[in-house]
Design goal:
Length: about 325
C-alpha cells in the first residue's frame, strides 16, 4: 500500500475535525490535549511525515510520555488509548501502515485500579450547604453547589440549563443536548431527561431567579438559568466553585494540613485546587450518588437520574463498602 504523506500536526487537526460531530466538546478537548503531546514529541524527534511511524517509535513515545509527564498507570493508559484511536483513523486515510494501532501497547490495570476514589462525604456536603444557606443564600455559588449535590448532574448539564428548562409548578428540570447553540451534554441525546426537584431546591431556585440572577442572555440569545453578568456560566467556573467550597478553611478557622491560612496559596481564588482536601464536581457527583444509594434509593432510579449505566454506576460511582451494601439490601430480606 502506498502511503500518502502528511505531517503529524495536519493529521491531528484532520482527525479532530472529523470527530467534532461525533463526540461531545469535552471529549474532543481531551483528545486535543492528549494528542498535543504526541505532536510535540514528533517535533522533538524530527518526525515531519506520519508515514515514518513504526512500532518501535510508538514504544519510544510511550516511554517519553510516561517519564516526561510523570504519569500514573491510569493516566498513561488513557493517553495511549486516545493515541491508538488516532492511529487507527490514520490507517483509514493511508497515512500510516495498516494495523499499526495494534502496536500501541497500553499498561494493564488491576481490577479497580482505574476507579477514582475522590468523593465528597455526606456530612461535609451538608456542612457546606448549611454554610451557604446561612452566609451566601441564593447566590450563584449556592445554586451551583446545591444543584451538583441534589441532582447528581455533571457540570455540563448544569451549564446547559435555561430558565425555561426549570418548571417550578411541577418541580423538575429538563436536561437537553443543544450542541448547535453551544451547550452539548456528555451522552448527547441519550443524556436528555427530566429531573425531579425537592421543595427546598425549588425554593432556592425561585429565590435565585427573583433576586440574584442577572437578567442576561448568552451569545445565542438563550436565557441561562445559572447566569453570570457576562452570560452563561462556564464549566471552569463551576469547577472553581467546587474546589473553593470544599476547602476546609472555608468552614473552619484551622487548616487540617497544618498550613497558615493567610499564607496558603490554596486559600486564594486562583488556586483552590492546590488544597489537598478540595475536590472537583465529579467528586461531588460521586458523593451524591453514594449518599442516595446509602439511603435506600433503588439503583435504577439513581442510574436514570444521574444518567449513568448500572455497570458504570457499580464500578465508578458506588463508593459504599460491602457491609454498607448489605445493610441497604436488608430491607428486602423479609421478602425473600
Amino acid at each position: 500500500m502506498d502511503l500518502e504523506p502528511i505531517t503529524p500536526e495536519e493529521a491531528v487537526e484532520s482527525y479532530l475535525e472529523q470527530r467534532e460531530t461525533e463526540v461531545a466538546k469535552a471529549t474532543l478537548d481531551s483528545h486535543r490535549s492528549r494528542l498535543n503531546y504526541f505532536t510535540q514529541w514528533c517535533n522533538q524527534e524530527g518526525i515531519e511525515n506520519l508515514n515514518e511511524l513504526t512500532g518501535r517509535l510508538l514504544h519510544e513515545y510511550r516511554l517519553w510520555r510516561r517519564n516526561d509527564g510523570n504519569l500514573s498507570k491510569v493516566s498513561e493508559k488513557t493517553q495511549l488509548v486516545t493515541l491508538s484511536v488516532f492511529i487507527q483513523w490514520a490507517e483509514s486515510i493511508e497515512a500510516v501502515e495498516q494495523d499499526l494501532h495494534i502496536k500501541v501497547q497500553t499498561p494493564s490495570l488491576a481490577y479497580g485500579e482505574d476507579v477514582r476514589d475522590d468523593i465528597l462525604e455526606t456530612d461535609q456536603a451538608e456542612h457546606i450547604l448549611d454554610y451557604l444557606s446561612k452566609f451566601e443564600y441564593a447566590t450563584r455559588r449556592h445554586v451551583v453547589f446545591k444543584l451538583l449535590w441534589h441532582t447528581m448532574c455533571r457540570r455540563g448539564s448544569i451549564r446547559t440549563l435555561d430558565l425555561n428548562d426549570y418548571n417550578p409548578s411541577n418541580q423538575y428540570l429538563e436536561i437537553n443536548h443543544r450542541p448547535e447553540t453551544g451547550t452539548p451534554i456528555k451522552n448527547q441525546v441519550r443524556g436528555e431527561r427530566y429531573i425531579a426537584l425537592s421543595d427546598d431546591m425549588c425554593t432556592l431556585l425561585d429565590d435565585w431567579v427573583e433576586t440574584n440572577r442577572p437578567d442576561v442572555t448568552d451569545n445565542n440569545g438563550r436565557s441561562p438559568l445559572v447566569a453570570t453578568e457576562q452570560g452563561r456560566i462556564h464549566n471552569t467556573t463551576i469547577q472553581q466553585y467546587a474546589y473553593c467550597l470544599t476547602r476546609p478553611c472555608i468552614l473552619d478557622t484551622e487548616c487540617p494540613h497544618g498550613r497558615e491560612i493567610d499564607e496558603c496559596e490554596a486559600a486564594t481564588w486562583k488556586r483552590p485546587f492546590a488544597c489537598p482536601s478540595s475536590v472537583s464536581p465529579h467528586a461531588i457527583r460521586r458523593g451524591s450518588i453514594t449518599h442516595a444509594l446509602n439511603t435506600g434509593t433503588p439503583q435504577e432510579a439513581v442510574s436514570d437520574r444521574a444518567n449513568v449505566t448500572r455497570d458504570v454506576l457499580d464500578k465508578h460511582y458506588d463508593a459504599r463498602s460491602k457491609r454498607e451494601k448489605m445493610e441497604a439490601r436488608r430491607q428486602f430480606a423479609e421478602e425473600l
